[in-house]
Amino acid sequence: MSRFEGRTCLVTGSTGIAAAAARALAAEGGRVFVVSRTGEHAAQLADEIGGAWAEADLSQEAQVESAVDACVAQLGRLDCIYNVAGISGRRYGDGALHEMTLEGWRTVFDNNVTSQFLVCRTAVRQMLAQQPRDDGRRGTILNMSSVLARHPSPEFFGTHGYATSKGAIEALSLAMAAYYAPHGIRVNVIAAGLVATPMSQRAQADEQILAFAERKQPLAAGILQADDLVGTALYLLSDDARMVTGQVVAVDGGWSVS
Fold this sequence. Notes:
There is one protein chain. This protein has a single domain (about 10-250), classed as NAD(P)-binding Rossmann-like Domain (Rossmann fold, 3-Layer(aba) Sandwich). About 40% of the residues lie in helices and about 15% in strands. It is built from eight helices and seven strands. It has helices at about 15-25, 40-50, 60-75, 100-130, 160-180, 200-205, 205-215, 230-235, and strands spanning about 10, 30-35, 50-55, 80-85, 140-145, 185-190, 250.
């Protein structure tokens, strides 16, 4: 398949879910630009898939704008955004409300919400400024949420700042989808379940959480793999979903119905 032939796809993050998507986008003809706070990882991934990369702290306005400018300068335009990068926040002071620190709250929102806001804003400005494709479409954005935004698990995942940040991402995405649909820009969200990534290493090492995941995510019989999200992500980013916008799609192995 070559659904992304001639399309420039910017992916934030360079490991786990982001890396799996970047490889798949490149395999389907996409010109992939990887942006990550960890330049070494971004460079390795870009080299592997024949893409380009930039190092940036996505919570910083100037660095986001510089990264998007570099993407457009090197690859010509911007067609797809997959906003994956984020943090869990527990080590920064996130937790149950009565235990959470203000620093933890702010750190989680800076890295999960402000970062996606800045990437989306910069991307939309570029999409509005560039020539639309022959079909009148200007671009598509896919943001990353979590099943915890709507289906909390207080026993094992009592990080209220993280859950709230993901709910904020969903609200922003739906508002964007409504506003920019007439401009030919689609915006959707994936709400992921528990996925084996570098961010979830604590959960992966906890036998109780593993047993919980086996019950809660029966389609996976445990923790999802990054590749389990690829099919849905590429569908939503491609013209296969050209009439789909403003949707939050749970890819959670059954968590939300179990």
